[in-house]
Amino acid sequence: MADLRIDIISDVICPWCYLGYSRLKQAIEQLGDDYRMDIRWQPFELHPDMPIQGADRDTYLGERFGSPEKLNEATHAIQQVGLEAGIQFNFSEKDHMPNTKLAHQFVLAATKANLSTPFVLALYHGYFTDGKNIGEQKILEEVALSVGLQQTDIDYAMSSEAKTITEKKLAQLRSLEINSAPTYVINDKYMIQGAHDPESFLKVLTDIAEKEK
């Protein structure tokens, strides 16, 4: 039996993070019952300069990609890759890109309740497929309740303690010069960056498990 802890450093508005987990999950399923996985979600801000109220997606990303045309190319590319992975990325002119600090506080609360993965996946689906504004407290509360979190968990997510811990985690990861997402840290020793295909993840996990025996 091999034990692997995987810290997934990601943002809940990062499409490659969503894809990366889907591919990682396929690799884990191929490993079988000889491996015990402890997956922990760690915060990352894809756009740390995002205003607290968020921004119009097309305007914000259009500036970063250099033109609406380049943004459209990137959008169509991610939609195609998503379809191949069974993920539906729906984008429209009305899309709002949120600040994700509060969402990360809710992920922290979900972690304490042992519901972090279902919660994060529900956020991904809510944002990318259903077009929900996951920067809004009301939406985060709805998603939290839908996966089994209790009102006490929501109260914790909104607490000053959750805010402080989340900010400390974000600062710590920046100090480690982790500047892209998704990033995976396995057993606090091995770092993988990017949404690799399932076969690549499988090979890496198998190799690390052999070293850790």
CATH topology: Glutaredoxin
Rounded to the nearest angstrom, the distance between the terminal CA atoms is 9 Å
Low-confidence stretches: none
Assign an overall shape.
globular
Compute the number of helices: 9
Mean pLDDT figure: 94
Tally of strands: 6
> How many domains make up the coordinates?
1
Which band does the percent of strand residues land in?
5-15%
Strand order of the largest sheet: 2-1-5-6
Helical proportion, percent range = 55-70%
Assign the structural class, choosing from mainly alpha, mainly beta, alpha/beta, alpha+beta, or little secondary structure.
Answer: alpha+beta
CATH architecture label: 3-Layer(aba) Sandwich
Radius of gyration over all CA atoms, rounded:
17 Å
Order of helices and strands: EHEEHHEHHHHHEEH
CATH class: Alpha Beta
Task: Find the CATH superfamily.
Answer: Glutaredoxin
Largest sheet: 4 strands, mixed
What would you note in describing this structure?
With 213 residues, this protein is α+β, with helices and mostly antiparallel strands. It has a single domain, classed as Glutaredoxin, CATH 3.40.30.10. 55% of the residues lie in helices and 14% in strands. The chain is built from nine helices and six strands. The protein has a four-stranded mixed sheet with strand order 2-1-5-6. Strand 1, helix 1 and strand 2 (35-43) form a beta-alpha-beta unit. It is globular. The termini are close together. 28% of the residues are buried.
